[in-house]
Specification:
By secondary structure, this protein is of the alpha/beta class. Helices cover about 35% and strands about 20% of the residues. The chain is built from 13 helices and 24 strands. Strands 7-6-5-2-1-8-20 form a seven-stranded mixed sheet. A four-stranded parallel sheet has the order 12-11-10-16. Helix 5 packs antiparallel against helix 6.
């Protein structure tokens, strides 16, 4: 008897948690487990700003898939299309070869990409913070700006090199600005020709206040902490256009700058559009049981899926956070096991535990279980949460060691130049043009469907 094939697309929180649970709950004879992922690690995304700031090494937040998954077959590549009727997933391997992979049960947890808008120059000159490569490249770029500024005698160029603009007032943008501002403030001590007052960090967001997810009080507290450190804010405005040397805001101001970091939200993976299924604000419409209506054997969770938040009720959807993705992955695995064994599926229910925002050093704001904290207590909660959320003891040990070493010995502010020939922009890293149209997907799946 042929084992049913369970194909998981995406090695994020939801995908890896799902597979690890399936390995425990299903015997090898019950199902074949396959993971489609271009990388061989799971990225702990919440700590990416610490990598960009040099507080953590890249390896600290890249958890080996083979350390966590013992009998899952890993297909090294990315899914570029899905035919939900024929039950075929089209995959482009890292070699460039395109294959059509049939499945019995598909778990679509492809995550998200950086949400961008039609702003002139954004994709060509903006920099993202969504991947490990982008974080490592951004650190090199920021230190390079200090190097160039220290060497130039041109006052205008120095000003532009030392102004950094971050767009996005959510926790990703706020943490990125906070951690990198600490990096430049500490690094300037090594540059005799530079003054700390010359370095300008500017946080821009279209919302009227910072960190709306945490409420007005904590948002104001975070702003006060960062303003004390010299970060400037432009709320209620956005970017009108940018080029290699300047950023023009919608309020009419032009900021001389060689660095714009774009963290203004995420959008579901373009893979969702290849299905031709119903979506909610770009995310795949899913049931509380994490199934996709109208498609047999198709489950979805994480950033790519709009999952009803049963705990809150109404039309509220679960936010695209690591906290929900991890728990959805486990619930998803339980429902797949239930389906294979002819048992009823259960809805995903989870009460949000709150958010933590690490601003570097002793600065943080947190709201665990509705309790508002700031300063050292909030920092203790934030770092404690991250340590518990990291999936392996090895990862926890690496992160704790890195935090301790950085606190005691500081940073050497070294540029690695591993990717010196890459522009490091959103256009360079966000390869969203590889996905197929539904018609192109059927061209690949048609021969397979005909044979079956």
């Amino acid at each position: 008897m042929t084992r049913p094939k369970i194909l998981v697309v995406g090695a994020g929180f939801a995908g890896v948690e799902c597979l690890q649970r399936l390995e425990r709950k299903l015997a090898p004879r019950e199902a074949e487990l396959v993971l489609v992922s271009p990388s061989d690690y799971q990225l702990y995304l919440p700590l990416l700003p610490h990598v960009a700031a040099g507080v953590l090494t890249p390896q600290s937040v890249a958890v080996s898939l083979r350390r966590r998954l013992r009998r899952t077959r890993i297909c090294p590549g990315g899914a570029i299309g899905i035919d939900g009727r024929a039950k075929v997933c089209v995959i482009r391997k890292i070699t460039g070869e395109v294959i059509a992979e049939p499945y019995d049960q598909l778990v679509l947890v492809a995550g998200s990409t950086t949400r961008t808008f039609d702003i002139p120059g954004l994709r060509e000159h903006g920099r993202g913070m969504k991947s490990l490569a982008e974080a490592a490249h951004l650190r090199d770029h920021v230190i390079a700006q200090l190097d160039i500024a220290a060497a130039t005698t041109d006052r205008a160029e120095r000003e532009a090199r030392l102004r950094f603009v971050v767009v996005g007032g959510g926790y990703a943008g706020t943490e990125t600005a906070a951690c990198l501002q600490r990096l430049t403030s500490a690094a300037v001590e090594r540059y005799p020709n530079l003054d700390r007052a010359q370095i300008k960090w500017h946080l821009v967001d279209v919302a009227p206040r910072l960190l709306p997810e945490l409420g007005e009080k904590l948002g104001e507290k975070a702003m006060a902490m960062l303003r004390y450190r010299g970060i400037e804010f432009s709320l209620g405005t956005s970017v009108a256009s940018l080029d290699a040397t300047s950023v023009k805001l919608t309020d009419g101001r032009t900021l001389p700058s060689h660095t714009l970091i774009w963290t203004a939200g995420v959008a579901a993976s373009p893979l969702v559009a290849t299905l031709g299924a119903e979506t909610v604000r770009g995310r795949l419409a899913a049931t509380p049981q994490l199934t996709v209506p109208g498609f047999d054997g198709l489950f979805a969770a994480g950033d790519a899926a709009a999952v009803p938040d049963v705990a809150k009720g109404g039309d509220v959807m679960c936010p695209p956070t690591a906290q929900h993705a991890q728990r959805q992955g486990k619930a998803l695995a339980d429902n797949i096991v239930a389906r294979l064994r002819g048992m009823p599926l259960k809805p995903y229910v989870h009460k949000d535990l709150g958010l933590v925002v690490d601003l570097g050093g002793r600065d943080a704001v947190s709201k665990p279980l509705g309790m508002e904290l700031h300063g050292l207590p909030a920092q203790a909660v934030a770092r404690g949460y991250h340590l518990l959320a990291l999936p392996t003891m090895t990862a926890r040990t690496r992160v704790m060691t890195n935090w301790t070493l950085n606190a005691v010995a500081g940073d050497d502010f070294v540029r690695t130049d591993f990717q010196a020939r890459r522009a490091g922009t959103l256009q360079d890293f966000e390869n969203t043009s590889v996905y197929l149209t539904p018609e192109q997907v059927r061209e690949h799946s048609g021969p397979l469907a005909a044979r079956s």
